[in-house]
Each structure stands twice: as C-alpha cells, then as structure tokens.
Write a structure and sequence with these properties.
This protein has 23 helices and 3 strands. It is globular, with a radius of gyration of 22 Å. The N and C termini lie far apart (about 45 Å). Helix 21 runs antiparallel to helix 22. By secondary structure, it is mainly α. It has a 3-stranded mixed sheet, sandwiched between helices. The structure holds zinc ion. Zinc ion binds next to helix 4 and helix 9.
Length: about 400
C-alpha cells in the first residue's frame, strides 16, 4: 500500500537534496567528469520503469565512500566511491542500483510504513543515525544539515530489489554484466574489511555476501546473454584521470574524517594537513580542516581555512556557515551576519544558519533583526536548546506573549 504521492517524492527531494549535496561539499568542480556521470546516468533513463521522473546525476566532493538517491531522482556519488570503480559499466551499475531505489519507490514505501517520521528538513540531529553518535553531535554543533534519516531507511529487501533493477537497467543500456560483478565485488571487499570510510555506505545500503552471490548467479542465468558486452574501462579511466591524481589527498581526507568522527581532532588535523599538501585548494579538504580547527576551538585558523575554502569554490555554501560560526566566536558579529546571509542566498532553508544569524544580530544588540530570524527558525525547529533560546528571547523582548498570562 502506497500512501505517498509522486508529488511528495519530488517535493521531499527538492527540499532535502541540495542540503545533502552541500554537506557533501558540493557537486564536483571537474565539469568534464560531472558531465560524464550525467551522461552515463541519462543513457539509462529510457530503460527504467519511471522514465518521466526528473532524474539528475552528479559527483560530489565528499571523500567517504557512498552513493545515494533521493525519491524524486536526484542521485549522487562521492569522490571516494568514484575512485573505487574501474569501468563505466561499474559506474552504470552503481547508478542503476540507485535508480532501482527510485523506481521501486523505496523511500515512499518506508514513509508509508511509518519508518520515516522526520524525513523532511528541519531536524538538526538527522546525521546521528548514519555517521555514529560522535559525528552526530559534531554535525549538530556545526549546524550541518543532512538527510541521514531519509537515506538510512532501506531494508535488506529494498537492497535486493535495487540490485535486481540495477542489473536490469545496465544490461538494457548495453553494458556487460561483469561491470555489476565488479561493483559487488568491490563493495563486498569493503564490507568484509569493515573499511571505516565505507561504514556510511553500508548504513544506507546494507551489504551482504548474499547480494554478491546473487549477482553472480544472475549473471550466469537470467542475464547470461549480456556477458562479454562492453565495460568501457578505458573511457572511465580517461574521464577520471584528473580525480585519480588526487587519490592520495582524498585518502588522507577520508582518514581525517574517520578520526574526526571519533573525536580525535589532533590525529584528524595531521591527515587533513597531509591531504592539503597534495591538493592545496581542495574545497572539501579546506572545509574539513576548518571544522577540525573549529572543534579544537582554534577559531582564527578555522576562519583562515574557511576563507580559503570560499575562494576555492565560491558557489558552494558550507564554507560560509563555518566562517560565520568562527566569526561569532571571534566576536566579529557583523562579518558573521554577512556570511550567514551569503549562505542563505546560495542555499536557502537551513534553519541552523538562520538561528546563528539571529544570534549574531542578538550579540550586536539588534533585537528587531534577531527576532525576525529567531521567529523564522522556530517555524522549522521547535525542539532543542536553540529553539528554547530563540523562544525565550522572543518572549523576553515582547515579540510573543508569555505562556500562562
Ligand atoms: Zn541501496
């Protein structure tokens, strides 16, 4: 029974996906590679069951290993997972698996079952479910807005179905089934090795030996006719050549993030430093370093790294949020307001940014502007310490009546 409409799926996608892409450090700036991912994805759409959906495909700058789909068809793969693949057929298998989730309407199904209560943007701790508790706290402290709850809801049955649809779509598109086995073998290897960088991947897409075995079985039976078809290894290698050069940097960022998730900021910092030595203007690396320094309460350096990050990728919003937070701690409130406003212009609708801008206005003594932001924040978030703070100020300043009077 499906209680959720297609309009809802598209709406939830539009509201959530831009925030998740920003939390993953934005779409790849490597236009050529991004276009290639888009082309491989687009070539599969005519072979899916819901051809009319507004699909879009991109790589994102995050270093950890993952790929995900929003229910309206917005699909992303991180630099971490793009580096783990070795052929276009494997990429099409990955995108096919994500298309499978969209086509089988798995998010809508979880929603109908009541598995997804806080699916829509507004919650601050949405990350805890997928990144572990320390990271969840870190994320909420930094005001990062993820769609963890939305993406972590697939069941093992959902995975089986997405695998089946994924293989169907890539075979229909003309690729050899060996590409799908390549993907499954890579995932299974990570799964067995309990690679930390992949832990989020398995929170969103549970892996098992059974998934791997089933793929081999299908490759030898139902889809055996597609064995030996093109895998386009060289084309994949050509298009990812630039990314591959950054592999040592991205591996350092991965390790740094894993240490950050454990709260080991000194160790994390050393990895970020190594990574930035190899790729000095890497937006994701710079923002990670800024976060790390912020958590160490080194606000001056946190600010310096977020300023560098802003210059490295001016269209992306996350660095503005960090820069604003650092400025609040350095008592540069006007600058903080400018940063949060810049963020809001690039990526509207993050309640955390609105709260902190309200807070910066409060520190400047501008009650009117502060109250406006606190009011807007409370329209999205009604629980937690920030909501309490915002509400108390509105009462204190006479913008809302005191309860019980
Ligand atoms: Zn999956």
């Amino acid at each position: 029974m499906m209680l959720v409409s297609e309009e809802w799926e598209i709406q939830v996608d539009r509201q959530n996906s831009p925030h998740q892409f920003s939390t993953d450090y934005g779409a790849l700036q490597d236009e050529q590679l991004n276009r290639y991912i888009g082309q491989v994805g687009a070539s599969m759409i005519p072979h899916t069951h819901r051809r009319h959906m507004p699909y879009s495909f991109r790589g994102v700058n995050a270093a950890y290993i993952n790929a995900y789909a929003f229910p309206g068809g917005s699909i992303a793969a991180t630099r971490g997972i793009l580096l783990s693949l070795e052929s276009e057929a494997a990429l099409s298998s990955l995108l096919g698996h994500e298309l499978g989730h969209v086509n089988a309407r798995h998010t809508a199904e979880q929603m109908s079952k009541g598995m997804l209560i806080q699916a829509v943007v507004g919650g601050i701790g949405a990350y805890a479910g997928t990144h572990g508790e320390v990271y969840g706290q870190l994320a909420s402290q930094l005001g990062m807005l993820g769609a963890g709850a939305l993406l972590a809801s697939y069941s093992r049955d959902n995975e089986r179905e997405a695998d089946y649809l994924g293989m169907t779509y890539m075979v229909r598109t003309g690729y050899g089934t060996e590409g799908f086995l390549e993907l499954m073998s890579m995932l299974n290897g990570l799964h067995k090795g309990h690679a930390d960088a992949a832990s989020l991947l398995f929170a969103t897409h549970p892996m098992s030996q059974e998934r791997y075995d089933t793929a081999i079985l299908r490759g030898n039976s139902e889809f055996s006719y597609a064995k030996g078809r093109p895998l386009n290894r060289e084309r994949y290698m050509d298009h990812t050549a630039g990314l591959r050069k950054l592999k040592p940097a991205i591996q350092n960022f991965q390790k740094g993030e894993e240490r950050m998730a454990e709260g080991a900021y000194d160790k994390a910092e050393a990895y970020f430093q190594q990574g930035l030595k190899i790729s000095p203007s890497d937006y994701a690396g710079l923002v990670m370093m800024a976060k790390c320094r912020y958590m160490q309460k080194k606000y001056e350096t946190a600010l310096r790294f977020s300023e560098k990050a802003k210059r490295a990728y001016p269209e992306e919003a996350q660095a503005n949020h960090l820069s604003g937070l650092a400025k609040i701690n350095l008592k540069e409130f006007e600058g903080a307001v400018q940063d949060f406003t810049a963020y809001e212009n690039k990526l509207p609708g993050n309640p955390n940014t609105i709260f902190y801008r309200g807070y910066a206005f409060e520190c400047m003594g501008n009650k009117q502007r502060s109250a406006e932001d606190y009011y807007r924040f409370l329209q999205q978030v009604t629980e937690g310490a920030q909501a309490k703070h915002a509400y108390q100020r509105l009462v204190q300043w006479g913008f809302v009546g005191q309860p019980g009077r």
